[in-house]
Design a protein that fits this description.
about 475 residues, mainly alpha
């Protein structure tokens, strides 16, 4: 006999959201338990409620599979990105970009150049942690020698590091946002530039005026050590730009993402073998396990040891566990009930953007997790954006604007703890100087209420480039 199903009440629909906030806020934020376990615990509680509503395990399993299937194409991109980073490192393409990026530092405009250089390096590496933990440390050393206020220096470094973390195709969060929202990577990045670039430029203008008059000798031991370590480990040539140019071509020409990344990665592997002289086995291993730098300089090795498909498995597993939670909640109609109540307020585009941004910030404050600020609001608000005939890239942009870059400003988040510990400046001291990190939220909300650069939905399958 098939058990009769009933619609969940508002309280029953709120329990999964409250539970995930408590589990992650306490379990992850205080006891530092694994996110995967906590997500599965929340999924289990949600499943118990679904059973009471009349759903059996097979139906919940179908919900999980459906939720995962929507994100599978983008998760494949995440894995291939790992391959790309590893081979670009091995070929010398990324090290060459980092090296010449460091060379453009101007003594007269420390804050501006610190932000710009960290932005460039984080774009080509896709990691805010790696940027802050290596080049950021060097910049803090320079700031100390030049008597530049350390909170301002740390704010510029964090803003630059997260500029790349937010828009780089190599960043895990940049790939996760379209996974959760149902858009595609390159449309997401292009749409994101409309809010991120103004916030970044306003920040640079403020750094320009704040930093005027700062000067002195920037040839610190840390910076020279990084430059020498990179330069002595690779041969540089313009041909190393071929793999990045291939990616740009595929993006501009709106060609399929994964084949373009694979071709670029294979080309980079050939450059590593025939130009850098890397053994075949090591070059192939850079695709799977990433590039392992052995310069002997700890800061350089930390910066350059990156990539590999295996190193993307943690991100993929977190996404799978989050989709398990969301799949059960969606199948049982819990998200629909929450959406009905939220839509009573979010009945215009502006209010919808504001609600989405507020939710991402709330998740950031509750959990301190960059991933969850994208996954939870992305899954929750996707139906509302479809209902208003708004492109999914509006949603993925909003959760990035109000999630990824807000987390390092939260003192109890892993990112906040990492940045403050690495740079030697507390989150409370540097957050107000990381202008780009919070200005993007205001710009996103303004766009929502004015309708500026809000894209309409033009096709059902928005994972296809050009949506």
């Amino acid at each position: 006999m098939v058990k009769e199903k009933r619609k969940p009440t508002l309280i029953e629909s709120l329990v999964p959201i409250i539970s995930i906030g408590l589990f992650l806020g306490v379990g992850y934020g205080i006891f530092h338990l694994r996110i995967e376990f906590l997500l599965l615990a929340a999924a289990t509680l949600t499943g118990i409620i679904a059973l009471k509503l009349g759903y059996n395990y097979k139906e919940m399993e179908q919900g999980i599979i459906h939720s995962i299937s929507k994100g599978m194409p983008a998760m494949m991109v995440v894995i291939v990105v790992g391959m790309l980073i590893g081979t670009w490192m091995a070929s010398g393409a990324i090290p060459m970009m980092i090296y010449y990026g460091l060379k453009i530092i101007s003594p007269s405009y420390y804050l501006l150049t610190a932000c710009v250089v960290c932005s460039i390096i984080s774009i080509v590496t896709g990691t805010s942690y790696g940027t802050a933990g290596t080049v950021g440390v060097a910049f803090i050393g320079i700031a100390s020698g030049l008597n530049i206020p350390l909170p301002q220096a740390a704010g510029a470094i964090v803003a630059g590091a997260y500029f790349g973390d937010k828009i780089s195709p190599f960043s895990d969060t940049t790939n996760l946002a379209p996974i959760a929202s149902g858009s595609n990577l390159f449309d997401h990045i292009k749409h994101l530039l409309w809010t991120t670039t103004p916030a970044w430029l306003i920040g640079l203008s403020l750094y320009f005026f704040l930093g005027m008059g700062y000067g002195g000798d920037i040839e610190s031991p840390q910076m020279l050590m990084i430059l020498d370590g990179i330069r002595n480990s690779f041969k540089f040539n313009v041909i190393l730009l071929i793999p990045p140019i291939m990616i740009l071509y595929f993006a501009i020409a709106k060609k399929p993402t994964i084949p373009g990344m694979f071709i670029s990665s294979f080309t980079a592997m050939l450059l590593a073998i025939f130009y850098q002289g890397m053994p075949l086995a090591a070059a192939v291993d850079s695709m799977v396990h990433g590039y392992h730098s052995t310069t002997g300089v700890a800061m350089v090795d930390t910066l350059l040891t990156k990539g590999g498909m295996m190193n993307m498995m943690d991100v993929t597993l977190i996404a799978l566990c989050a989709f398990a939670f969301a799949g059960i909640a969606q199948k049982a109609g819990m998200l629909d009930v929450l959406l009905e109540h939220m839509m009573k307020f979010a009945n215009t585009t502006g209010k919808l953007i504001l609600s989405t941004a507020s939710s991402s910030i709330a998740v950031a404050l509750m959990t301190g997790s960059s991933f969850l600020t994208l996954l939870v609001p992305g899954e929750l608000f996707a139906p509302a954006f479809r209902k208003m005939n708004l492109a999914a890239k509006n949603l993925s942009r909003t959760v990035e604007d109000s999630g990824t870059v807000i987390v390092p400003l939260v003192p109890w988040s892993i990112a906040g703890v990492y940045m403050s510990g690495t740079l030697g400046v507390s989150t409370i001291e540097y957050w107000k100087w990381a202008f780009m990190c919070y200005l993007g939220v205001f710009i996103a909300v303004i766009y929502g209420f004015t309708g500026f650069k809000i894209a309409p939905k033009i096709r059902d399958d928005e994972t296809v480039p050009g949506s």
